[in-house]
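Worked example 3 (structure in, sequence out).
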């Protein structure tokens, strides 16, 4: 009889123990797969949502400033050698090496105007890009489509008693208010937004912009590298990353990963204890059997192969079953954890391989101590119990 036949026959004779071990390992592996799948999906969703959440790079004109002081009196800051940033210059940012990481470039021209005898800030924007950039905006009414339409902040609406469909006059030109931005807690609440081209013409600043906000998909590319490449293309601009937003994003993603790995580690430890208990009990029960094997010439390596082949066969099957149980569990539990209409949990060879290897590794580690006891077993003592 071959050694592997002994292992298979042993599994058949101890069906109940084999089934319990199979189920225990399968549920453990399934739990790990569910956690990993949820963690990966949460990471992807978090990455996408945070990449959508506003700008993480600011482009402004490069200028030099001098603090003017005389006789201990400060006369303020004087700017000189200021470079005017042109809108068509921004097109160069789409030629950088990491252009795939650039999602939105939203230029703005900002000036001070007068409305109802009050000074206000007015910003010229491309509304299609601004709406994509400011995903948190909640607008009453509609986003401007025509050149003579405007969008105003909540503070402007309340302070100056301006409502939807009202007409306002900016620099002698009439605009119709099509929408009001609900309170955001930012400076957007105090701004009147109009079309950028209209703004440039209104203030005789053709092709000029005050700044540009850039949303970069920087999860898989260092933000500093994007800034460096953009700076080479726009030497007359001052390009700065909003590092705090990036660091917060990475910290949030890492927290989800650490949580998943921590829980998985606990499950693996419990699995090792389950397998250890099962194998140790099996070795004790098979004390006489092992003694007979040794007395008829089986070596320690043969005994080890018999026990390991048995446990590895069960663990590999458990890993495969556990993966598919985990895949099913992910489909069931994922909607309760992640609110998204685009959840995709597909078959993965890499996760199947991980589940199988993990199950086998747990089984081998848990079997080391019982296996050592079986090797050290004295055949004479074992035979005396016959």
């Amino acid at each position: 009889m071959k050694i592997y036949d002994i292992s298979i026959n042993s599994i058949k004779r101890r069906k109940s123990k084999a089934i319990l071990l199979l189920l225990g390992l399968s549920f453990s592996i399934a739990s790990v797969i569910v956690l990993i799948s949820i963690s990966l999906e949460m990471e992807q969703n978090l990455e996408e949502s945070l990449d959508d959440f506003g700008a993480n790079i600011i482009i402004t004109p490069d200028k030099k400033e001098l603090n003017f002081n005389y006789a201990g009196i400060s006369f303020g800051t004087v700017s000189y050698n200021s470079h005017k940033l042109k809108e068509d210059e921004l097109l160069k940012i789409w030629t950088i090496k990491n252009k795939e990481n650039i999602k939105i470039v939203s230029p703005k021209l900002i000036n001070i105007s007068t409305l109802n005898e009050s000074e206000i800030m007015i910003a010229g924007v491309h509304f299609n890009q601004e709406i994509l950039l400011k995903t948190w905006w909640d607008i009453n009414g509609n986003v401007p489509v025509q050149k003579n339409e405007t969008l105003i902040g909540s503070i402007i609406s309340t302070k100056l008693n301006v409502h939807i469909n009202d007409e306002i006059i900016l620099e002698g030109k009439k605009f119709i208010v099509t929408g009001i931005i609900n309170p955001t807690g930012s400076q957007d609440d105090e701004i009147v937004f109009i079309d950028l081209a209209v703004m440039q013409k209104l203030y005789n600043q053709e092709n000029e912009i005050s700044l540009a906000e850039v949303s970069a998909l920087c999860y898989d590319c260092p933000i500093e590298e994007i800034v460096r490449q953009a700076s080479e293309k726009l030497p007359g601009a001052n390009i700065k990353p909003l590092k705090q937003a990036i660091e917060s994003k990475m910290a949030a993603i890492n927290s989800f990963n650490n949580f998943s790995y921590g829980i998985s580690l606990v499950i693996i430890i419990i699995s090792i204890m389950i397998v250890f208990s099962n194998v140790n009990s099996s070795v004790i029960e098979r004390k006489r059997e092992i003694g007979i094997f040794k007395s008829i010439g089986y070596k320690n390596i043969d005994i080890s192969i018999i026990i390991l082949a048995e446990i590895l066969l069960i663990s590999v099957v458990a890993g495969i079953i556990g993966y598919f149980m985990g895949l099913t569990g992910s489909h069931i539990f994922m909607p309760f954890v992640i609110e998204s209409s685009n959840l995709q949990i597909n078959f993965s060879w890499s996760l199947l391989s991980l589940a199988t290897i993990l199950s086998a590794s747990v089984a081998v580690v848990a079997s080391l101590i019982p296996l050592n006891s079986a090797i050290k077993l004295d055949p004479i003592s074992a035979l005396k119990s016959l």
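Notes: Residues 56-64+78-241 form one domain. The chain is about 55% helix and 20% strand.
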